[in-house]
Design brief:
Elements: H1 3-19, H2 21-40, H3 45-49, H4 54-76, H5 82-90
Helix pairs in contact: 1-2, 1-4, 2-4, 2-5
Amino acid sequence: MSLKVLAECPINTVMMYQIYKNFLAHEIREMIALIANLIALQATEDQRTNFDLKEVNADFVSGQVKALSFIVYFKSHKVRVNKLKEISQNLSFF
């Protein structure tokens, strides 16, 4: 799977959540934990400076930004997810 496809997953999940809120509560909790791990990932200095990986790095960062918007959506809409408070404490930018 390409990083561009992976970057669209959080957005699609939010859309599905808006339609199927009652059915997705448990899955959203699991996804938030996984997405927090994705946001915390960083490329090494060699990977960031490698010209051949420039596009891959840009796609990766774009995916992280979209993943962050996924977490912000649930935080701003006061979705009751116990893990969200714990995760937001681990991410310094919240």
